[in-house]
Amino acid sequence: MRTDNVKRWARMAQKPLMLAALIVLMAFLAPGVFLSRSNIASILMAVCIYGLMVCGTIFPLLNGGIDLSIGSVGALAGSICVLVTLRYNSSVGGTVLGIACGLAAGILCGIFNGFISYQFAVPAFIVTLASKNIIYGIAQNITGMNTILSLDSKVMNWIGTGKIAGVNFTILFFLFIVVATYFLLNHTKFGRYTYAVGGNAKSARFSGVKVNLIGISAYAISGFTAALTGIVLSCFNRQAVATQCSGYDGDVLVALVVGGVSLAGGEGTIQGAAFGILLMGILNNAMVLLGVNSIYQDLLKGVIVIIAVALDMYVKNKGNGLSRNIWNRARRSAVNS
Q1: Contact in structure between 303 and 88 (CB atoms under 8 Å)
Q2: How do residues 155-178 score in pLDDT, each as one tens digit?
Q3: How far apart are CA 188 and CA 211, in angstroms?
Q4: In whole angstroms, what is the distance from residue 11 CA to residue 315 CA?
Q5: Would strands 148-149 and 239-240 be described as parallel, antiparallel, or unpaired?
Q6: Which is higher by pLDDT, 330 or 332?
Q7: Phi, psi at residue 168, to the nearest 5°?
Q8: Nearest 5 degrees, angle CA 285-CA 156-CA 247?
Q9: In whole angstroms, what is the distance from residue 58 CA to residue 253 CA?
Q10: Residue 49 CB contacts under 8 Å (≥ 6 apart), including other chains
Q11: In this structure, are residues 45 and 171 in contact, taking their beta carbons and an 8 Å threshold?
Q12: Which of 84-98, 171-185, 213-227, 286-300 bottoms out in mean pLDDT, i.e. has the lowest?
């Protein structure tokens, strides 16, 4: 019994130990810089912006789907927010309307993805990859491929740089979204149905779960948080550009996988996803501080992701003997050949 407890605690401590090891390593490699106040603030801001997307994108993955359009949705929502704000002379009402329009656009994009995927049984990978290009095209069209500045909106300025009790609003907002996501996944019927659909959609349907509705809702949530990210980023940068969230989809999906969210659906937690995005945030910052050429950054991230996922799977499978059985079969096959 004590051995089981030790193994369970070892699995629970695995992710915090990985983070701690990376932090100690970077403190050694970049002394006086990595742990500086400004650098920590920079990491937290990046984590919070990416993390907003993670909180919504986890839902399609738990359903057994995927959303590759989140970067384009964020760009479109941010562009709409800025354009509407400028249309009404950066007034408070105009900015609020711009935010509402951006969020509505994100939700509609998510509903579109979910409807096509579930109603017509089109693989989510194909649907969201196609919609990614369509949405980017729309964003490029409405912005004219220009960077649109919005320097006079007090609301946008406060959302991007405002503080509450000395803490940046974006950080507090991210924490609120994380808590809301945790509650939704663990304490509501929708959360239970999300895991059920991802685990076995046919069984869930036979049990009375409205699989299509759950799936479409998951994509709507993903679109909503992607739009939130684009709007917050536009407020932070005080501008909109059609490519402002380019590449976000890759880092978000990597963070989810590293955080233990299964691409097959039905497995994963928002706690694990938060670990994944924090790890990716520190890793991205570390490569910049160490002067790693951008050509090699994706290469290094890919290697680290493979190691992290392989280690996580090994630890999970070791307890049930699966890793040992795989090794034995591979050894017998080598001997027979």
Answers
A1: no
A2: 999 999 899 988 899 999 999 999
A3: 16
A4: 7
A5: antiparallel
A6: 332
A7: -55, 135
A8: 35
A9: 9
A10: 170, 174, 229, 232, 233, 236
A11: yes
A12: 286-300
- Residue 142: phi and psi, rounded to 5, are -75, -25
Q: Are residues 140 and 240 in contact, defined by beta-carbon separation less than 8 angstroms?
A: no
Task: Note whether 182 and 274 are within 8 A (CB).
Answer: no
**Residue (of 218, 223, 169, 222) closest to 190 by Cα position:** 218
Q: Per-residue pLDDT tens for 203-213?
A: 999 999 999 99
Which amino acid would we find at residue 271? Q
Task: Show the tokens assigned to 129.
Answer: 């990859």
Are the C-beta atoms of 222 and 248 separated by less than 8 Å? no
* 332 token code pair: 């017998």
Q: How far apart are CA 110 and CA 249, in angstroms?
A: 14
Other residues' Cβ atoms within 10 Å of the Cβ of residue 267: 16
- Which residue has 């019927």 as its token pair? 189
The amino acid at residue 146 is N
| 291 burial type by CB count under 10 A (0-12 exposed, 13-18 middle, 19+ buried) | exposed
Q: Report the DSSP beta bridge partners of residue 149.
A: 239
Backbone angles phi, psi at 163, to 5 degrees: -130, 150
Q: Count other C-beta atoms under 10 Å from residue 96's C-beta.
A: 15
Cβ-in-10-Å burial (0-12, 13-18, 19+) of 57 comes to buried
Please tell me the distance from the alpha carbon of residue 174 to that of residue 229, in angstroms, as a whole number. 10
Distance from C-alpha of 77 to C-alpha of 84, rounded to nearest angstrom:
11
Residue 233, CA atoms < 13 Å, CB-side half-sphere:
32
pTM reported for the whole predicted model: 0.88
Q: Check if the beta carbon of residue 114 is closer than 8 Å to that of residue 271.
A: no
Q: What is the mean pLDDT of residues 219-226?
A: 97
